[in-house]
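User: Run a structure prediction on this.
Assistant: Running it now.
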Amino acid sequence: MSERFAGRVVVVTGGASPIGFGIAARLAREGATLVLGDLDSDRLQAAADELGAAAHAGDLSRRETAEALISLAGRPDVLINCAGGGVILPTPAHTEETLRATIDRNLWTTLYCTLAALPLMARAGYGRIVNIGAESVRNGLYRHAVYNAAKGGVHAFATGLAREYAEHGITVNTVAPAWITTPEADARLAAAPEAERRDMAGFFDRIRATIPMRRPGTVAEVAAAVAFVASEEASYLTGQTISVNGGSSML
């Protein structure tokens, strides 16, 4: 595998999550010096130990935590905003708590980490910011309205920044996965009560019907897209949404 990220400092938020860890592992194999952030301190430390990364645990929807993470990186070359996770429910079933949790985890984490990294990248004249968005923003996926409100903000933030910072050598793009399968999600589903498993089976049938390839994607497929967008090779790519989606939307 190439050393595309040799000498580059890469910050991955949500680095203890399945997708965040998969992205970090891919970039580590290509030579990146990693700094990981996540809310789950135990899983984060295990991920950092496995990848030889620095780590900072805490709630990245709080500005001081985001700034501490970026400060740990020194001068980040690449920022992967992967912290997220929403409460997926029929819209009327959301509570004040789930509404705020979904916006905080996805939008505020991205805003604060990016705002902390931008001045450092601008002074260096180089930066790659990759937001992990969501295909559901494009296809209006069942039960995803509130999640889409948060991820839609992430998508829009990227396009605005891309234009604003293009002359500073900084590119800003979004990688938007569709349904991605992970061993952790499969294990949680297997351990769920029967009624929940039946409900989720119907839910996944609805998702599968939107995907021409009729299968979920993998973490490795998302990580491969992120690795390209985050690299020097993608120097003329900015303000774009790259959908890793099996064809569920086509533009």
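The chain has one domain: 9-180+218-244.
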